[in-house]
Amino acid sequence: MKTIAITIDENTLKSLEELAENSVKGTRSRSRIIRKAIREFVAKESKRRREARGILQKHRARLAREARALVSEQVKV
Predict the structure, then answer these.
(1) Cβ atoms of residues 33 and 15 within 8 Å
(2) Which one is predicted more confidently, 25 or 4?
(3) Are 8 and 16 in contact (CB under 8 A)?
């Protein structure tokens, strides 16, 4: 594991420490809580990006037609 330094505001740190204090023994480490939060965030963000790419792929042809139509209209103006 690598050690990093982060800057965190007082309210977030207070919330983190309260969470650590009220956690089940063995999960009270602030570092462990932050690692878990980052893993969950990365998983959620990866899923969101995959879904966004899927939506773009699904509508690719229609979006291309609409873009060509818009460009054609602007050329006429």
Answers:
(1) no
(2) 4
(3) yes
First to last CA, the chain: 60
Those residues whose C-beta lies under 8 Å from the C-beta of residue 56, and which sit 6 or more positions away, are 63
pLDDT for position 42: 97
Q: How far apart are CA 20 and CA 33, in angstroms?
A: 7
Please give the single-letter amino acid code of residue 16. L
Is pTM beyond 0.70 here?
no
Burial 35-47, CB ≥16 within 10 A → b, else e: eeeeeeeeeeeee
